[in-house]
């Protein structure tokens, strides 16, 4: 349902560290690039997210995340133009992460 990506640079965004690591390992095995965010992007994310988020690749917004943390990552990472593909992993483990996240992801997909 998406047009082909313009490149093979992937950012994995998740609220579960293990899920993120397993997914990025699988993506690398398929030949996709999993580049670390630039210093500039990392600084922007650090200024808007809690200090305990893991801002590498995968980008782990951690288990207590609401949809707003995913918004921050999408906004900043899309604006940076460092990635061609976004893979989202969500563990619906937190009451603060309701199904509204699916609507937000669909908005970014457009």
Look up the CATH topology.
Rossmann fold
Largest sheet: 4 strands, mixed
Query: What is the name of the CATH superfamily?
Result: Succinyl-CoA synthetase domains
Regions with pLDDT < 50 over 5+ consecutive residues?
none
H/I helix tally: 4
Q: Note the beta-strand portion.
A: 5-15%
Task: Supply the CATH architecture.
Answer: 3-Layer(aba) Sandwich
How many DSSP E strands?
4
Shape assignment: globular
Biggest β-sheet: strands ordered side by side in the sheet: 2-3-1-4
CATH class: Alpha Beta
Order of helices and strands: EHHEEHEH
Give a verbal description of the structure.
The chain has a single domain, classed as Succinyl-CoA synthetase domains (Rossmann fold). Helix content is 43%, strand content 13%. It has 4 helices and 4 strands; from the N terminus they run βααββαβα. Strand 2 and strand 3 (59-60) form a beta hairpin.
């Amino acid at each position: 349902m998406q047009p082909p990506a313009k490149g093979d640079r992937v950012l994995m965004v998740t609220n579960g560290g293990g899920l993120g690591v397993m997914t990025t390992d699988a993506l690398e095995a398929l030949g996709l690039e999993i580049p670390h965010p630039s210093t500039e992007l990392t600084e922007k994310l650090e200024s808007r997210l809690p200090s305990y988020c893991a801002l590498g690749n995968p980008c782990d917004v951690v288990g207590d995340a609401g949809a707003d943390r995913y918004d921050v990552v999408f906004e900043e990472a899309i604006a940076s133009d460092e990635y061609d593909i976004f893979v989202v992993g969500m563990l619906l483990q937190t009451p603060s992460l309701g199904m509204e996240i699916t609507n937000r992801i669909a908005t970014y997909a457009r």
